[in-house]
Design brief:
single chain, globular, 188 residues, alpha+beta
Length: 188
């Protein structure tokens, strides 16, 4: 019986000794702003942000990103063609640029993500993180939810350091003035 108590005491002491020290600050590796921007650019590319947030131009090999309007969202002057409302019972529609989507939620338009004031130029890092983790329009706490097809639920699982890197990259982009249209409710 004495051996069991000694083993239990030894085991408890080992667990205590191996437990992480919670009162010591955890050091995170600091990276330069240039490295953070480069990381953010890589994440924006890998995650396919340009697929919906950049207008397209037709090339010899099909549609390509309009490099003069990268990440500027749905062009404010682009009107959507009429469509049969009956089709929305079975489909979700994307425009040719993939910058506008029509579904049961209405019509959503890809936002301008450039550093321009019509984009995220006046956003704070906190607003961006709220938009990506809580799905709030413009990252404002009591605003409407972000609409499909924006996959904010997936982005909410990313490490905050990655979201900060994406924000740093977006703030470093060339500003493109484009006040993209507001969402249209399904009743209109």
């Amino acid at each position: 019986m004495k051996r069991i108590y000694l083993f239990s005491a030894f085991f408890a002491a080992m667990l205590f000794a191996c437990a992480p020290k919670t009162n010591e600050p955890v050091e995170t590796q600091k990276i330069s702003l240039d490295d953070q921007i480069a990381k953010g650019e890589n994440l924006v590319t890998v995650l396919g942000c340009n697929d919906c947030h950049s207008p397209k131009v037709m090339t010899a090999t099909g549609p390509g990103f309009d490099t003069l309007r990268l990440l500027s969202g749905h062009p404010a002057d682009e009107q959507l063609p009429p469509f049969e409302k009956e089709v929305l019972k079975s489909y979700v529609l994307f425009n040719m640029n993939s910058t506008a989507t029509i579904g049961p939620w209405g019509t959503s338009f890809a936002a301008n993500l450039t550093s321009d004031q019509t984009g995220i130029g006046n956003w704070t890092e906190e607003q961006f993180i709220r938009a990506m983790t809580k799905g709030k329009w413009k990252g404002i706490e009591n605003s409407r939810d972000l609409l499909p097809p924006m996959p904010w639920q997936g982005y909410s699982q990313m490490p905050v350091e990655d979201l900060k890197a994406i924000f740093a990259y977006l703030k470093s982009t060339k500003p493109v003035n484009n006040a993209f249209p507001m969402a249209i409710p399904p009743t209109e």
